[in-house]
Amino acid sequence: MNSVPSSRPRSQEELSASGQQPSEAMTTSGPQSRPASNLPIIANFDSAHITIGAGVAIFHLATSRVVVCYHSTEKFWFLPKGRRDAGENSGVGAEREGFEESGYRNRLLPIPMRHRQPQAHKSNAATSTFYTEPVWTQLMPVTRSTQYVLFWYIAETLPPDIEQALSQKSNQEDGVYMVPPPFPKNLTLAARIDMDKKSTPLRHENTGVDEDEALYESYLLSIDEAQEKLRGTIMADVVRIGWEAIRARMEIEESNNSTPNS
Asked: How many helices (H) and strands (E) does the chain have?
């Protein structure tokens, strides 16, 4: 892996052109500034005037790092994202875009989070503590008449056995993208980390699907370094939210394991 490059700050015009909106509303000033949600809006778009996309922060739990991409010619940092395919679930689209733009296979990671989605009606499943809902949603104009809606998710790199199985199956099917199995409901993060203690996540080469994506590089960075590289964008807060939620899940699981059975 090459050394991590430095980069210049991006102008607002460049951010908008690339779909990377700066954090316009901040809760405080200074290095700890965090974006605030905008006020609700009313807007209507038919199918010919809206594009739905998804992005992802991919964490390697065993080393407390996160995948961040770098555009080698335009010199800016970003989290992988892109348009979901027709008929594709947005979460699956986030995983696929994460793989195509960074080279790291990944799967959505259930985390504790506040959200407004209801539980399934008359579901026999126990109420979950952890969810894979988007942690941020962005609305960005594509043209004067076309809207882009972007959902940001939290994910993790894959265990070595699943990585190997999907790579073999993909090779057998001429490089077709393979959707990973979901994170097991009964797997704790401590047990998941144990699976990676003797391995490093595999970064696949040449996973980009166009000439621009061929210019992308990707790096596993510490949480602090990733937030610094992404400073001034919603993506920095996606990393923050993801990492804080991962730590919160570990604390919940440790507390549950230490509680004696009643």
From this structure: 6, 8
3-state secondary structure of 244: helix
Look at residues 133, 130, 136 and name the one whose alpha carbon lies nearest to residue 246: 130
Distance CA 14, CA 20 (A): 8
DSSP state of 69: E
Both tokens of residue 218? 């990707």
Angle at 243 between CA 238 and CA 245, to 5 degrees: 95
Beta strands in 170-257 (DSSP E): 216-222
Rounded-to-integer distance, Cα 165 and Cα 220, Å: 23
Q: Give every CB contact of residue 222 below 8 A, 6+ residues apart in sequence.
A: 64, 65
| Mean pLDDT in residue range 100-118 | 97
Cβ atoms of 208 and 214 within 8 Å: the answer is yes
* pTM to 2 decimal places: 0.89
Beta-bridge partners for 22 = 233
Q: What is the pLDDT of residue 208?
A: 95
Q: What are phi and psi of 172, to 5 degrees?
A: -70, -25
Rounded distance, CA 127 to CA 241, Å?
22
Let me know: does 19 contact 206? Beta carbons within 8 Å: no
Q: What is the pLDDT of residue 119?
A: 87
At 182-214, the pLDDT tens digits run 999 999 999 999 999 888 999 999 999 999 999
**Residue ranges with strand state E in 158-240:** 216-222
Residue with tokens 């989290």: 79
208 close to 100: Cβ distance less than 8 angstroms: yes
**In terms of residues, how long is the chain?**
262
Q: Which element (helix H / strand E) includes 151?
A: strand 147-157
Angle at alpha carbon of residue 250, lines to 30 and 166, rounded to 5°: 100
100: tokens are 């195509």
